[in-house]
Amino acid sequence: MRILAILKIAVRALHRNKLRTILTMLGIIIGGSAVIAMVSLGNGAKSMVEKQIASLGQNVILIFSGSTSRGGVNTGWGSAGTLTIDDANAILREVPGIVSVSPEVRTFSQVAAGNQNWATQILGESQDYLELRQWALAEGTMFTEQDVRGATKAAIVGQTTARQLYGESGAIGQVIRIKQVPFVIAGQLAPKGLSIMGSDQDDVVIVPYTSAMKRLTGATTLRSINAQAESADALTSVQQQIIDLLRQRHRIQQGRDDDFTVRTQQEIADAQTAASKVMRMLLLAIALVSLAVGGIGIMNIMLVSVTERTREIGIRMAVGAKGGHILMQFLIEAVTLSVIGGAIGIAVGVGTSHILTLKFDWPTLTSLPWIVISFLCSAAVGILFGFYPAHKASNLDPIDALRYE
What does the domain layout of the chain look like in residue ranges? Predict the structure, then answer.
């Protein structure tokens, strides 16, 4: 019996019980759509994390005061002001491979302009900060090294802050009051988006770090330092040299914990992607379980179909059909169920991903290889769970099958 003829018989048999066929495919449809939707969500989250890591700049090294495990107590990054401006200058001066350094002072404050006010993050940075972060200006200019040395009242604002304070009117040249101290806006930043922690990077005001320490916080130490290596290949070497230099400067004896933490951009990226990978695998496992449940449904229905069509099987064998033909017929029915269900499930999954992006602004990224994998998995489910009922049908005794009522 030819494959095409067997396929026609299989389709005709499925068509006779439309409702049962649809309900049987429903498990595969749900499983296939779950695979595509979950993978799309996972890939979207991974892409967003990679984009956020890239927003830090290129070849960035972050140095935080405090250690994550000082004396057996988890204190966390930036928990104590153990870094100084001299440390930052020493890193730039004594560590080969360092291109630029920006001491960082962070604080949150209510800022005001005219009759408008807004709570935002204030960053004290050096004149090299925007180049280090690869952050462009939409308009205006960055404050200079002379502004840093003189602790002048120059400021750069992010787009969110500028919009909240000035609306659609220009922010350049306007006066912004930070803790009642007037600063003149020299530049407005291009949009940057969310940070790796999920905060709005455009909701910020950047001033010279000397101005932040002298006029806003009164701090004499730093919570963090941003540094940039000359190349990605130099990151590991430069990181170790910074650790060695700071241990020497802070007089940390052998065997004692550091009072600082040094992380490269790659380490942060690896940590974030590892977390998202675990989530992707968990979601994929749930989707595969859905496919397996759909496969069990196919096996159940095919066993019922074999029982219902026992007499039909006996007649086919009596007129010359061999066991292989019967096996192929029922196997093709099972595969047809799973393949059609898988194709519909893929369409539903892709549609669901687009709806999540459009309606809820969730990042999704549909992957063509995973569409192919999902389709092949659906076909494999049909073969795997349809083989036993098909094998059972092919082994029926023709005489017993003809007598079956």
Answer: 3-51+272-403, 83-249
